[in-house]
Specification:
Elements lengths: L6 E8 L10 E2 L13 E8 L5 H18 L6 E4 L5 E4 L5 E8 L4 H5 L32 E8 L2 E8 L6 H19 L42 E7 L1 H13 L37 H17 L6 E9 L17 E9 H6 L2 H14 L2 H13 L13 E6 L17 E4 L8 E6 L7 E7 L1 H8 L2 H4 L4 E2 L1
Helix pairs in contact: 1-3, 4-5, 4-7, 5-7, 5-9
Length: about 475
């Protein structure tokens, strides 16, 4: 395994350049379950900046200060009141800024792994702050940190943010604004912000229900030290379209729909079997649903599970546009729910890809306003932390989204070369979806699996035929 040693050059606190006027923000029904999750860690790999590196560091500090004034929640801290409600106090306490050095690493080293070790380079995990930090720690730690790591011929900008404060939509909105402010400052212009964050707390997710927190605070619900492999598989638009055509062509060729499980938020009966779901037959299975279905099928086959065992595929969905009336698309906070789709291993591996694709498709389109509200009501009846992990050896959890504008993070000298993540929230079966760098509907899947399962996936020709290239 390649080794690395990233050294910290300096660390400081960056404060907003204007005082916040925001009142404390109540953590919502979608925020609170994330208190047991790690901070989000995502970052961008860039070519070398045109200016001296210390000038870049100074510029990034100034633009981060400006950006925090627009996103004051990230510069605050958590506070729990006497009734047990958790709030973000927007007190301008600031975020950590870290300048790190890994000049022994080149872009080629990081992006062109050797044939005998094709996994994601382990050094990426050193490019983030707050490793394995639980979001509940925001009571005493900053809610965000930025680490800028200097490489031999490039730079990595990694942002760590509290998952009870941001979901993927909010996270990348902050990241995009930070990059845009930096780019504008470098050109001598003042950045005009196209979309300001919405800190409204009068949505359906706001609730007076108190989440019981274990004594000493929550802990993650998965074993963070299990042996894992991590790879990024790339899928071009053309290959995904080929897979989509395959999924749609055989979606109705099976008679097994009635014996497969669906949505755990109200569309299954007590045995996990399909209940009535109204789906128009001409609704097309999407590209991403097709890709997710193929991954579910291939990983399940690689795990060599008993045919009678039940497998669950979880997808995180953005609820902002699913509610009526719709939420502001730039609502800042978590506005997500997890959709579990279940089926037996035997059904998954014996049917064609359209079988799994149809199940995922039905669940996604059924997750409408009433389903979102029912999920909120269910949580209020039994408030709980989010159970993240692979508890029975047969689960897959899909996070992030190829729709997030990750490659829009141009700090002034070009778009990113790659998107990478840190150690946070990784376990056997955790998948993160990124857009491909070339855009146009291409997708990268960051796949984290047990070593023996990854080996099986790599040898699954049905899966690998759709992989355009992999890093």
């Amino acid at each position: 395994m390649p080794s690395s040693s990233t050294s910290i050059i300096s660390k400081c606190t960056i404060y907003p350049d204007q005082k916040s006027t925001l009142k404390p923000l109540h953590l919502s029904v979608s925020d609170l379950p994330m208190l047991s999750c790690h901070y989000i860690q995502k970052g961008v790999l860039l070519s070398s900046p045109p200016q001296p590196f210390q000038d870049l560091i100074d510029s990034l500090k100034l633009s981060l200060s400006t950006t925090l004034s627009l996103f004051p929640a990230l510069a605050g801290r958590f506070s729990t009141d006497s009734a047990g409600h958790v709030h973000i106090v927007c007190n301008d306490a600031g975020v950590d800024f870290i300048h790190a050095n890994a000049k022994h690493l080149t872009l080629a080293t990081l992006l062109s792994p050797p044939a005998n070790f094709p996994d994601v380079h382990p050094s990426f995990k050193e490019f983030f702050a707050y490793d394995m930090t639980i979001s509940y720690s925001g009571h005493h730690l900053p809610l965000a940190a930025v680490q800028v790591t200097e490489l031999a011929d490039g730079v990595f900008v990694g942002i760590t943010a509290n998952h009870a404060v941001t979901d993927g939509t909010s996270f990348w909105h902050f990241f995009n604004t930070f990059a845009a402010v930096t780019k504008a400052a470098g050109s001598g212009a003042k950045k005009k912000i196209a979309s300001y964050p919405d800190f409204t707390r009068d949505t359906v997710f706001n609730s007076a229900v108190v989440l019981p927190v274990p004594a000493g605070g929550p802990t993650v619900t998965f074993a963070a030290d299990d042996p894992l492999r991590e790879r990024v598989f790339h899928f071009s638009r053309e290959d995904i379209q080929r897979l989509k055509k395959q999924a749609n062509s055989n979606r109705h060729n099976n008679d097994g729909w009635k014996t497969a499980g669906v949505n755990g938020s109200g569309n299954c009966n007590g045995n996990g079997m399909v209940a009535a779901v109204n789906v128009r037959n001409n609704d097309e299975i999407s590209s991403f649903q097709s890709l997710s279905a193929q991954l579910w099928r291939s990983v399940t086959r690689a795990r060599k599970l008993d045919a009678s065992k039940t497998s669950t595929f979880r997808m995180a969905v953005n609820c902002r546009h699913r509610l009526e009336p719709k939420m502001d698309p730039f609502y800042f906070g978590n506005a997500i729910q997890s959709i579990p789709t279940v089926a037996t291993v035997g059904d998954i591996v014996s049917n064609e890809v359209g079988f799994c694709a149809e199940l995922l498709h039905r669940n996604v389109i059924a997750h409408d306003d009433s389903t979102v509200r029912r999920g909120i009501e269910d949580w209020e009846k039994a408030p709980r932390l989010f159970p993240l992990g692979n508890f029975d050896g047969a689960m897959i959890t899909m996070g992030s989204s190829p729709r997030f504008p990750m490659y829009d993070n141009d700090f002034g000298w070009g778009k990113p070369l790659a998107i990478r993540s840190g150690k946070a929230n990784k376990f056997d079966g955790k998948i993160s979806a990124f857009p491909g760098r070339e855009g146009n509907g291409s997708v990268d899947l960051e796949v984290v699996l047990a070593p023996e399962t990854m080996a099986g996936l790599e040898n699954d020709m049905e899966f690998m035929q759709y992989v355009t290239s992999f890093e």
